[in-house]
Every structure is written in structure tokens, then in C-alpha cells.
């Protein structure tokens, strides 16, 4: 009987990242997908800064930046004219090594993840479907339907449902999926074209309640059109063609279409599962939460789920922690998912609202306010922090303790950079580690050496103060680079007590 540590259902970005992270940490995974081949079309485009930061742990960030497209600006159009421009080139300068908007289509993204996963000897099992599963005392027993139609019984310690909005894992767990469905039909078209909106920047039409945007891709004259329709055409989504929706792009954004490579339509929901974990089964990505594409958050949130769960599963399976560590996955990720669904729903509802007042706000007020607001550094920083997901934090949650400087337990470690380097180099290693900015005690140094806990002591520099880091305290960092403890002492007993209380064993490799 085939047995793995973790059986992953679904080979989209969420499932692939989970498989990749676990494989890097020495965990035996099996990943299946019911599709015949990887997708050749994609809706998700943006790879946010926080995802790129975490991808450094897998040596993926540079490949994405090199092969993707950095968007220089967002342009907003009204009545056939560009009326506002928001520069994006260094919108997050000083906050992250990736202070820009990166476009890297999901199909190319998946191909890169699959290629890297194969270096660990793991291949996605295609045309293979989960039929059912049950939990036994020490694991999961699953029934799979193989490509030849035969049924296979397999076992795993845990099962991860990364199988999308129609998740069989979620349905088997009988988790509710409350929320709703947007009335609009969304469409995506991959086109080659020319015109002022094909200058390598992002363009958004504010004219009507139906959303329309042009997202640039790496190839010159190549872009993704994403839009909505809500009139009588939406009632016949299955027969909708590009010709039915293209006139608006041609007229409003002055697009000259040369070739349509592909076109598809879909409906979007805004839902969050009632729970993300039941026993040995977990829900991640679209199986756990779906929302509007506003802000390019969906794929990145699923990847965040995968990284959050991966190090915890690896710790438990390798004997480095007790199973209670896994309780924190749902606590940390469901709170963020609920906030995100609420936020993206409000933004999308504003952009697509109907009526004279809504039209006035979009076409007159928004073009006036956007340049004004973004001329202030604080406004630009708030916008970038929100969209880039660098503000995602786990403050006040069970694995987060303390505060020192401006940094709380549960925060992403702030990036500090100057001419002497940055404080992120050690984060490439996905392990527990301690950062000290300034000086620490001989006791702390000796304790960390004895317990094989990496300790990085940085000579105090103004860049650390500017980033909000405290002098001479310490930050215990989790393997996913979030702060577990922020403490202004140099006492290793604080760390020792933390590990003991959370069932984490004091050995590190």
C-alpha cells in the first residue's frame, strides 16, 4: 500500500509550494491532480513582495524577477483618456528587497514550481483523482482513481486539500463555505495588441460599472485583459466570445487587437470555509477561501497558507514538535482570510458599483484623488504595505509573544538595508533562528551554541533603528521568518520556556 507523509490534493501554486517546501525539509510527499496537464492559461498574475521574500528560501525569487515583468506604473482612464498615473517602480522602497509590482503569469509560475519539485524526485501524478478518504488513529486512508480507471488505496499521515473552490477534501470534511457569488461574469483574454495601453504599464478603465484592466506581460505588445460583464450577456457566459466584449477595450483604452491567443470566462465567489483543519486534514488556497481578484491577492494568499503549514507539518513529522503545533495553522490563516475577503469585496464593490453617484466617484473623484493621495509618502507606503502582504501578521495569536522596538511577536521581521548589507540573508535558511541587533549576553551565546540554534548578532546601525528594530534585545524567528518572540532582554530562558510551552523540541539541524 502506497504511503506518504503528506498526501497533497491539487497541483496549482498552493499545492506545488506545499510539496516543494515539505520536500526541501525532508518530508515524503505525494501530489495528485485530476487534470491531464498543467494549465496553459491563467488568471493570477501578480507575485507580491511578501511571496518573493519567502521564495528566497527556495531560491525562486530571482528566477521570477528575471522572467517576469516589473510594472512601472498604474494608469487610470476616463472617456478614452489616461487621467491619472501612479508610479510603482519603487513604491515600497526601503520596506523590502522587492519594492515593486511583479507580473509573472500563473501558468509560467506553475511550470517553474514543477521543474523545481522534480529536482527532489517528486512528480505530479496527473489524471488522478481523490474519490474519498477517512481518518484512522495514526493517519489517513484515501481512495484514488488512477488514469486507467482503476482504484488505489493509499495511506498518509496527513492530507492537504489544495483542490480549489470545488474541493472534494472540504466537501468530505463537511465544512460550510459561506459567502456569495458576484453577479458579474469575469473574462480573461491573452492578446497581442498595440496602442497607448500597451506600453508595459497597468491600465484600468474607470468609465463604467464593468471592470476592465490591461495587465502587461514580459513580451512586448503582449498583455492580459481582465474584465467583467453584467448585462444580458452574463446570462449566456458559456457562449460568450471575445468579440462580445472587445469593443470596450478598443474604444475606451484605444487598443488595437492583433491576435487573441486565448479567451475564457468564469464566475467569482467570496467565501471562507468554516474551518481550515479537521484532525489530520487541512484546507489551503481556494479550497479554504475565494474572493474577488482585486489587488492580486488570491494566489499569494494560497502560497502563504502553504508556507505557514509546511514548516509546522515538517516539525511534527520529524519529531521536532508535538502535534499541537498544527492547531496554529487555522488560527493564523483563517483570521487573515476573513479580513481579506471582506476587504477585497469592499474594493471590488466600489469599482463596479452602478448609478450616477458611483459613476461620479469613479470618473471624477477617483482620478482627482489618486494623484493627490499617492503624492504623500505615507499614502503610498500604506497602499504598498497592504497589497504586498508585508503587513500580514499573527499578533496576539498563540505562537506570538512580546514586543520590543516597534516589532511585535507575530510580525514579519522588518527589512533593514544600508551600504553594509541587509538583515535578510540568514532568512534563506528555513529554520528557527535568533536575531540580535547590538549586543547580547554570554549566556545567550552559550545557550544557542549548546542547542544548535543559529544566532545572528548584528553590530548596531542606524538602519536598524529606522526599521523599528530594538537595540540589544532579541527576536526569535520562526522558519517562515515571522517573529515568534520579541524581547528586550538577553535571557535565553525566555526562549527555553517558549519552546517548552509550545511543545517544540530543542534540537535544530
From TrEMBL:
Pfam families: FAD_binding_3 (PF01494). It comes from the Bacteria. SUPFAM superfamilies: FAD/NAD(P)-binding domain (SSF51905). One of its GO terms (molecular function) is oxidoreductase activity, acting on paired donors, with incorporation or reduction of molecular oxygen, NAD(P)H as one donor, and incorporation of one atom of oxygen. Keywords: FAD, Flavoprotein, Membrane, Transmembrane, Transmembrane helix. The keyword Acetylation does not apply. Residues 4-342 form the FAD-binding domain. Its cofactor is FAD. InterPro entries: FAD-bd, FAD/NAD-bd_sf, RIFMO-like. The chain crosses the membrane at residues 6-27. The keyword Isomerase does not apply. This is FAD-dependent oxidoreductase. It comes from Pseudomonas frederiksbergensis.
Amino acid at each position: 500500500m502506497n504511503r506518504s507523509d503528506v498526501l497533497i490534493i491539487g497541483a496549482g501554486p498552493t499545492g506545488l509550494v506545499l510539496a516543494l517546501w515539505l520536500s526541501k525539509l525532508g518530508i515524503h510527499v505525494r501530489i495528485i491532480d485530476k487534470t491531464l496537464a498543467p494549465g496553459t492559461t491563467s488568471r493570477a498574475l501578480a507575485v507580491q513582495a511578501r511571496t518573493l521574500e519567502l521564495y528566497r528560501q527556495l531560491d525562486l525569487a530571482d528566477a521570477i524577477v528575471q522572467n517576469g515583468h516589473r510594472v512601472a506604473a498604474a494608469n487610470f482612464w476616463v472617456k478614452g483618456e489616461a487621467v491619472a498615473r501612479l508610479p510603482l517602480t519603487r513604491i515600497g522602497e526601503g520596506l523590502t528587497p522587492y519594492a515593486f509590482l511583479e507580473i509573472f503569469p500563473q501558468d509560467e509560475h506553475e511550470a517553474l514550481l514543477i521543474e523545481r519539485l522534480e529536482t527532489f524526485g517528486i512528480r505530479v501524478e496527473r489524471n488522478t483523482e481523490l474519490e474519498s478518504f477517512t481518518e484512522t488513529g495514526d493517519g489517513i486512508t484515501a481512495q484514488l482513481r488512477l488514469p486507467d480507471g482503476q482504484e488505489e488505496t493509499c495511506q498518509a499521515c496527513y492530507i492537504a486539500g489544495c483542490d480549489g473552490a470545488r474541493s472534494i477534501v472540504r466537501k468530505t470534511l463537511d465544512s460550510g463555505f459561506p459567502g456569495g457569488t458576484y453577479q458579474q461574469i469575469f473574462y480573461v483574454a491573452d492578446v497581442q495588441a498595440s496602442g497607448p495601453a500597451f506600453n508595459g504599464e497597468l491600465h484600468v478603465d474607470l468609465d463604467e460599472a464593468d471592470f476592465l484592466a490591461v495587465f502587461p506581460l514580459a513580451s512586448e505588445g503582449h498583455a492580459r485583459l481582465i474584465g467583467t460583464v453584467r448585462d444580458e450577456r452574463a446570462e449566456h457566459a458559456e457562449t460568450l466570445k471575445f468579440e462580445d466584449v472587445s469593443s470596450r477595450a478598443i474604444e475606451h483604452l484605444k487598443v488595437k487587437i492583433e491576435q487573441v491567443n486565448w479567451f475564457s470566462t468564469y464566475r467569482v465567489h467570496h467565501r471562507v470555509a468554516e474551518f481550515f483543519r479537521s484532525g489530520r486534514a487541512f484546507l489551503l488556497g481556494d479550497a479554504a477561501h475565494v474572493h474577488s481578484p482585486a489587488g492580486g491577492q488570491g494566489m499569494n494568499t494560497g502560497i502563504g497558507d502553504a508556507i505557514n503549514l509546511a514548516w509546522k507539518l515538517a516539525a511534527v513529522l520529524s519529531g521536532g514538535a508535538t502535534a499541537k503545533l498544527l492547531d496554529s495553522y487555522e488560527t493564523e490563516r483563517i483570521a487573515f482570510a476573513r479580513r481579506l475577503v471582506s476587504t477585497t469585496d469592499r474594493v471590488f464593490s466600489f469599482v463596479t458599483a452602478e448609478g450616477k453617484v458611483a459613476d461620479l466617484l469613479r470618473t471624477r473623484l477617483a482620478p482627482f484623488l489618486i494623484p493627490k493621495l499617492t503624492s504623500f509618502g505615507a499614502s503610498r507606503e500604506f497602499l504598498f504595505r497592504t497589497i504586498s502582504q508585508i503587513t500580514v501578521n499573527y499578533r496576539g495569536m498563540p505562537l506570538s509573544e512580546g514586543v520590543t522596538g516597534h516589532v511585535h511577536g507575530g510580525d514579519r521581521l522588518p527589512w533593514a538595508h544600508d551600504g553594509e548589507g541587509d538583515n535578510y540573508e540568514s532568512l534563506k535558511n528555513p529554520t528557527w533562528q535568533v536575531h540580535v541587533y547590538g549586543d547580547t549576553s554570554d549566556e545567550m551565546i552559550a545557550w544557542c551554541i549548546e542547542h544548535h540554534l543559529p544566532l545572528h548578532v548584528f553590530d548596531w546601525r542606524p538602519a536598524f533603528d529606522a526599521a523599528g528594530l530594538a537595540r540589544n534585545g532579541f527576536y526569535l524567528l520562526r522558519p517562515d521568518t515571522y517573529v515568534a518572540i520579541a524581547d528586550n532582554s538577553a535571557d535565553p530562558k525566555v526562549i527555553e520556556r517558549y519552546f517548552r510551552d509550545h511543545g517544540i523540541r530543542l534540537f535544530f539541524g
